[in-house]
Specification:
mainly alpha; 9 helices; 179 residues
Amino acid sequence: LSLGGYQYYLSSVHSKNEAIVEKYVNAINSPDISVSINQLIELDESSNSYIKGLAKLKRAELYFTTEKKDQALELLESISTDKSLDRIIRDTALYKYLMVKLDVMDKDSYLKIIDSEHLKESKFKYLFKELKGLKLLIDGDHINSQEIFESIISDKDSPIDIRTRAEKFKKISKSWKII
C-alpha cells in the first residue's frame, strides 16, 4: 500500500513539473514580448524554484530588450538575493547585474559585492574575478588589475576561455599604463 502511494506521489510531482516546464517554454517562445513577460510573471508562483528562477532571468532579459533597464536591474538585484532560488540562478543574476553596472557603479561598492565570501565558492568565481580585474582596469588601477588577470592566467583550474581573455586584458592594461 505505501509503495503504491509513493509511486502515485512521484507521478504527481513529475506531471506538475512537466506542466511548469511547458508553461515556461510557451512563455519564452511567444512572439509578443508583453505576453511573454506576463506569462513569465505567472511562473513566479511556481513550486519549481529552478524554473521560477529561469523565468525571472528571462524576464529581466526581456526588460532590457524593451528598454526597461531600471526594471531589469531591479529584478536582477532581487533575484541575486532571493534565497528561495537555486544558487546558480542567484549567481547568474548577480553576474549580469555587475556586467551592466561595470562602468557606472563606484569602485568601492562594486568591489564590496565581488569580494563577498559566498562568491569565492560560486561556479562563476572566475567570471567574478575577471569582472573585478575589469573594474580595476576601468578605474585606472593598472597594477592591481594586472595582478588579478595574472592570478587567473596562472590558475590551472580557471577555464581556458577566461584565461585567454585575462591574457588579453593584461596586455590592454599594460598598454594603457604606458599612455
